[in-house]
Records
---
Amino acid sequence: MKSEVIKMFIDIEKEEEWLNDMSSKGRQCIHYSFPKYLFEHGEKGEYIYRIEFLEKSTSHPESKAYINFIEDSGVEHVASHLNSVYFRKKAEDGPFNLYTDYESRIKYFKKMSIKGVMLLIVSILASIINLFYGFFGDILGVKRQLSYMNIVAGILMLLFILYFGQIVWKDIRRVKQLKKDKEIYG
Amino acid sequence: MAENNEKMPLTEAVYYILLALHTPMHGYGIMQFVKEMSNGRVNLGPGTLYGAISTMVGKGWIKTLDGEENSRKKEYEITIEGKQIVLNEILRLEELINNGRKITSI
């Protein structure tokens, strides 16, 4: 038996938690094509899901080589979406984590943080431009009236920045913690 | 500069991967080998393994073996430089163990 769920996530950690939560309830995700998740009903906790945010788009040859390598190690490739790749492995095979030492985990979260910060900067600029244009009109002086569309867009972007900023901050703090742990445990 | 790096500790993952590759192997084989060698203690994540392999190929510690064309399962093998790195590491580990035994009398 199959079922579909439409859901959207900004935080991929929450997304991964959700997939594993669904799995523990007996619903195994077998495919994802934004924004629909397809589930197959089966054993509770049958699979462990991991989502990785890759440096390059999943259609890039480097990403494909990486995905192939992961598949060759007995992991199933469930879906790809933009830069995110969705893997799963049977829980009976034991714990499943893509990165298992401090070095590689620090590297991964560092890259995520950097990408996150870049997106934040772009969003902040876009928000400022929208709000400025919305309130003050075209700098060149042609338009001189409130542009509600731009103000709304600007405010929505601010909300996004606040939400997404927390996620990026979470990743940055994690890198700091991992670095501290690495000093002791190597 | 390079000489200093050679005396730096290796991570457990890197050390065990280098040991595994004294025999030509591909990714999954390395994971199994390391798990067995360490009695299940060291479980290499495939992402960690991928990164470590790329880094070590870059450093010339391991090399890819020419397999069949378009073969997805690449095999790797340790190089002479890699073997030297392992020997240095074993000496370093021996120093640690010897000092540990001296102090704690274990």
Note: Strands of chain B lie at 25-26, 62-65, 75-78.
---
Amino acid sequence: MTDWTNFDAFALPTLGCWLLAVVSLYICKRKWLPVSLTLAGCLIFATFIGLLWSGLGRPPMRTMGETRLWYSLFLSGIGLVLFSKWKYNWILTFSLFMAFMFMLINLLKPEIHTKSLMPALQSRWFVPHVTAYILSYSFLTAATISAIQQLIRYRKNQQSAQLVSLTDNLVYIGLGLFMIGLLIGAVWAGESWGTFWNWDLKETWAFITASCYLLYIHLRLRETAPRRFTLWLLVLALICLMITWKGVNFLPGARYSVHLYEQ
Amino acid sequence: MKSSDSPQNRPFKTSLISVASLLLTGFLLQLAFGSFNRCLLRFPVNMYLLIALLVIVVFLSLRPQSRLFQWFSGIPLSACNIGAILLYTLVLGLVPQATSAMEESSIFGFDAVTHSWPFILLYSFILINLSCVIARRLIRFSWRHYAFYLNHLGLLLLLIAIGLGASDRHSYIMQVEKGATENHAYNEQEGIRQLPLSIKLIDFGLEAYLPKLMLTDPRTGEPAADGRARFWEVDTLHTTGNLAGWHIRLMRYIGHAVPSDNGTYSPQEVTGACPAVLVQLENKSGSVSKTGWICCGNYAQPQRNLSLNDTLNLMMSVPEPKLYRSDVIIFNPDGKQVKARLNVNSPLRSDNWMIYQYGYDAKHGKDSTYSRFQLVYDPWLPGVYAGILLFFLGSVCLLLEGKKKTKEEKR
């Protein structure tokens, strides 16, 4: 019967595969090797989750340690899909790095595998909801960095079509993931609290953030090259995103938020 | 001609002025009448409004080349509407909102944004705009625009089902004693009401996590350590650990314990039993070693702590709930009976009712003699689910396809 005592036997080969995947990403020109290594790592890890599920007799979703298993699997899997589509090396590197971090916590702190997860968080939607957001934050942050680069180039009169295209794609990918996280959160809220949308503080700021990116997308449909206003919108959007992620805890009205469980 | 008056910018200017005027009208209505009463939108009024929306959009789209339809379905108006809703929800995000009508104090409705006239008018305007945008693409239908249809139709369905349907949604709390059948429920707006369905509670069960031990100051009752050092979670696999510099060893753990005559605890699965542990503590130097039983106590038996010195006690916190569930029989209005188990995150659907495991008697924990359920009536639920599904698929298209190049960009 597989339990947490077998975790190292699966985690170490998985980490080995992912590490080799990242190295081969920057050494080899052909992408089939990092993709295969990442996939191999994901399969080994998924095998452990499946065997643990079988051993426990229930889905491994009740403790913090079990939740981290799914983070690692989702981050690596989604990162692989997005890398296969978009071919940006940093997508796979970042996703595997994040997956690695969650696995490292489980490896270094085995005593917290049984750490309690309150009943409302024991939901099949918890991990996809948070994973989608983690990934979206990274893409949208990259989009803002790209926008700032464009603003600097504006001053030097050195616009780059490639940078414009990259910024747009990063916003589309990031917003797509953000909306997936938001919609999963709505379904989860409907299942747990009986209401899909409560204008809870975190939900409100997620809506504000999404509106910023939606506005950017719509303005860009009328522009061949982005105007300064449109690019500054991405800077504002990142500020709203940071408030959504962490800043809401400090806002007035935060005490009524259901998202205080994070604390 | 100034660049701001160029043909490209005129629709933006018109849209900005229109949206600003709309918001101003909303503020004036707010000042005159106070917050909007959502109950006015109850069925059949919301259905009439939906039909009116359809009529307006069909009417406008009869002449798709008209300036009015082009403006209503154009990007400038969409962008201005998104900008307006962004600004208005910033107010929602920064100003603490009133939790009831009695608490509202802002004359412009800033502390009750979702009930304010500007928000309602803007919401309605967005529905018309979004419907016209979709109609414009449907007139020149192409399967290649599947991502557009998924995103925009999904959003429209959601806005209609959540916005227009909100007033038809009712939520109640029902408390049912073990073995009893109940059909009375309560909410703040309607008070106690008899519902068309009944619930019989067969059994209630609760599983708790292993308890935590913590050091406290017996003089104040406050924790004696901060941060991570505050708790030591009882772990039957890893029976030793550290707690604020004290070495702790778990010698025995009883999940359902009752006190014995000799000062120890014995396992008995009876009502009123609670966790107890036998632990040994030793300080860093080894000069102080204490062994004893600790129990969190409950309504039936007292708490027991282990005294280490005049300023330190080791106590057990009440175990946190892992999951709680109710075995019930639902008696539907049509006479059907449904046997089910309700957990948190696993509601039950019965026609247009959703039934959620809401709470229990926290003081009695696993021995709770009643269970609380939340019953939500929402006839617009299928619309919400359909909207979420379409919007979800549209979002997947966004992230997999990115921005589609225009003909100009391709050239």
Note: The domain at 122-256 of chain A is CATH 1.20.120 (Four Helix Bundle (Hemerythrin (Met), subunit A)).
